[in-house]
Design brief:
The protein has 9 helices and 13 strands. The protein is of the alpha/beta class. The strands form 3 sheets. Strands 1, 2, 3, 4, 5, 6, 7, 10 and 11 form a 9-stranded mixed sheet that branches. Strand 8 and strand 9 form a beta hairpin. Helix 6 packs parallel to helix 7, helix 7 packs antiparallel against helix 8 and helix 8 packs antiparallel against helix 9. The protein starts with 6 loop residues before the first strand and ends with a helix. About 45% of the residues are buried.
């Protein structure tokens, strides 16, 4: 007899009607039907939230924020909604993804195999190169304070999955139990966007929960669909680099202990100094300023 669980699927929309619409259509083909989709419109100013509501109001629940709360704040709105309604699981799913019909069934199946699991990630491949991995989970290197994506750009047919727990799961497609949520708490809204999933995962591990990859559960990811837009200095805005740099230092300060913290900070200072030199040479001074601001606030801002 199959055990059924209720799942709240959270999708944050921020001015991305086409991506979110495609994601919702792909979810409509899921084999597992015991889920509720919650679309969180994160202060969109292009009317995309209303357009999605008009089209999908009969199949999805919509939550609207007056301002952009970031990935962490937007998802927290949905998490609170789901916890208040006693869902068994919460799934974070990027709006620039499309899913295979059996992905949720396969992800849920992992929990039946291991009672220690708190979080499961799907296998994520590139939308335009479905034979190539975007993420097969994450590894945390404490000595460097570095989060590494496993399987990054490796051909799917060549990747050998290691049968051991992950260190962290990406928020692109992250399924978490209600029990873990109640013990670990919400996403850290101070991160706003980038690395909040790493910090959350490491908190889960600290509480004794394991994290697994559902290697057969496949989804397709545009990769940066909401952040890649044409700017004066390239496709990624200076703000993306600011959050990336700042939050990397937040992680080091929160997760790396003792003398290793000095080593990790030094390592990242060298990395981001190289970025600064590159942006200077390319006359991308807005990005240079964002990197420098990220370094300063990442090392000094209270967390």
């Amino acid at each position: 007899m199959e055990i059924k669980y209720s799942t709240a699927i959270l999708i944050v929309n921020w001015g991305s009607y086409d991506y979110t619409r495609s994601c919702l259509i792909s979810l409509s083909h899921c084999l597992n039907k015991d889920f509720q989709i919650i679309v969180i419109d994160n202060g969109s100013t292009d009317g995309s939230g209303k357009m999605l509501f008009d089209e999908f109001q009969n199949s999805c629940t919509f939550l609207f924020s007056d301002t952009n709360l970031g990935f962490s704040g937007g998802n927290n709105l949905g998490i609170k909604w789901a916890l208040e309604r006693d869902f068994d699981f919460v799934l974070l799913l990027n709006n620039d993804t499309e899913v295979n019909p059996d992905f949720l069934t396969l992800m849920l199946g992992e929990f039946a195999l291991n009672p220690k699991l708190g979080v499961v990630q799907s296998m994520i491949v590139f939308m335009d190169e479905p034979n190539k991995i975007w993420s097969a989970g994450g590894k945390w290197i404490p000595s460097l304070g570095r989060a590494i994506t496993l399987g990054d750009r490796v051909l799917l047919k060549d990747y050998v999955v290691q049968k051991k727990p992950l260190d962290w799961a990406t928020g692109c497609c992250l399924l978490i139990t209600r029990q873990a949520l109640e013990q670990v708490g919400m996403l850290n809204e101070q991160y706003f966007a980038y690395f909040e999933d790493v910090e959350w995962s490491l908190r889960c591990r600290d509480k004794g929960y394991e994290i697994a990859l559902a290697e057969k559960a496949t989804i397709y990811h545009v990769a940066g669909g909401s952040s890649k837009k044409e700017h004066a200095e390239g496709m990624l805005s200076p703000r993306v680099f600011y959050f990336h740099v700042r939050n990397q230092f937040f992680l080091v300060r929160q997760q790396v202990k003792g003398l290793w913290k000095i080593a990790a900070i030094t390592y990242h200072l060298l990395r981001f100094s190289a970025w600064a030199v590159y942006f200077t040479g390319r006359f991308r001074f807005k990005k240079l300023k964002s990197v420098l601001r990220g370094i300063i606030e990442g090392l000094s801002k209270p967390i």
